[in-house]
Amino acid sequence: MTPGALPAPKPGILDIEAYVPGKSAAPAGITLHKLSSNETPIGPSPRAVEAMLAATTHLELYPDGQATALRQAIAEAHGLNAANILCGNGSDELLGLLCSGYLSPGDEAIHTEHGFLVYDIYIRAAGGMPVVASETDARADVDAILGCVTERTRLVFLANPNNPTGTYLPFDEVRRLHAGLPGHVILVLDAAYAEYVRRNDYGAGIELVSEAENVVMTRTFSKIHGLAALRVGWMYAPEAIVDALNRIRGPFNLNALAIAAGAAAIGDRAHVERAVAHNSEWLDWLTGCLEGLGLKVTPSVGNFLLVHFLDAPGFGAAEADAFLTERGFILRRVTGYGFPNAMRLTIGGEEANRGVVAALADFLGRPTT
Fold first, then answer.
1. CA distance 263 to 5
2. Bridge pairing between strands 33-34 and 135-136
3. DSSP-derived pairing of the beta strands 186-190 and 329-330
4. What does residue 231 show for φ and ψ, rounded to 5 degrees?
5. 249: which DSSP letter?
6. 117 near 138, Cβ under 8 Å?
7. Is 189:215 a contact under the CB 8 Å cutoff?
8. Confidence class for position 19, pLDDT limits 50, 70, 90
9. Rounded Cα gap, residues 124 and 96, in angstroms
């Protein structure tokens, strides 16, 4: 080996901040309540578990490279054409494929100020330049996004609802955003939390994708369907975009267990409805309790809350994080998202929800309501 000649990644790779998942450990001997990763407390559909177990009898066989059963189940559940559906190893993979397929070095992709950190990672990994559009009151701002568009823009990522804020854009605003984009720019609607939203002015994006040639919608089975461990995501997109991404994705990017479980899960509407009902009840309850303790909570339509802590010494997010961790309540610090004095709290089961409120009351020295 020539002295000094060591392998080096391509330019820009070492400038990327690696994604850090939510913490998942508590001190020894303490009951763990993991409220850091927006996982559902309801768990997966029993039908999904049964289908997955049945699929384990043929682990020697490669999975269906087209994920046909899953695509057909998704199409049936949403009234879509299966040819417009692409499945991936979580929706994260699909976001990465969009960057790989449509960004060349020097191209730009826009995401919002407090948007999902993975957008920045995939944009940079593809050699693109991330452009950050400011938000207003922790909500995407259509005019700010459109003001960032240049001749180099190729992708616009909009998480709707957004993580970690829980805010959303009404669908008429999404339409206005799309109308202001050049035809060669793809609008990516990341609707990972769509199933939780109960607002009459919200739309996940299916209708807009059906009408346009430059809009895609991504969804996930990791949240309300409870299949985070299996990594199942899907995209609804124009056939031309599906065709392009099929050419660069891995030939067996979804395993057989994920395909079987996903196909069963999306058909279990009763399970989804139970998860929605649980979330709606406890989202309102937790918001009221936390505000009653004097904490600011960003209004959320997802399965989590962005909780802002006090500026007083000893009562900030860092101190709250240490206090809660010692008691087994694991929340998500969101400094990397631009909120150094806030934490994201996932809606958990009853025991976890009541317990975290009691723990925060102790931390703040205030009685629970």
1. 49
2. unpaired
3. unpaired
4. 60, 80
5. S
6. no
7. yes
8. low
9. 10
Cα–Cα distance for residue pair 161/168, rounded to 1 Å: 4
CA proximity to 230, closest of 262, 192, 252, 265:
262
pLDDT at residue 18 in the model: 73
Q: Given the DSSP bridges, would you call strands 304-308 and 296-298 parallel, antiparallel or unpaired?
A: antiparallel
For residue 338, pLDDT over 60 is answered with yes
Q: DSSP string of 281-349?
A: HHHHHHHHHHHHTT-EEE--SSSEEEEE--SSTT-SHHHHHHHHHHTTEE-EEEGGGTEEEEEEEE---
pLDDT in the model for residue 244: 97
Reading the block at residue 32, the tokens are 């763990």
Count of H-run helices and E-run strands, the chain? 12, 15
Mean pLDDT of the chain: 94
Is the model's pLDDT at 193 over the cut of 70? yes
CA dist 6 and 290 (Å) reads 53
| 21 pLDDT higher than 80 | no
Alpha carbon distances (Å) from 287 to 68, 167, 211, 234, 368 = 41, 14, 37, 31, 13
Report pLDDT for 368: 61
Rounded to 5 degrees, φ, ψ at 256 are -65, -35
* Model pLDDT, residue 303: 98
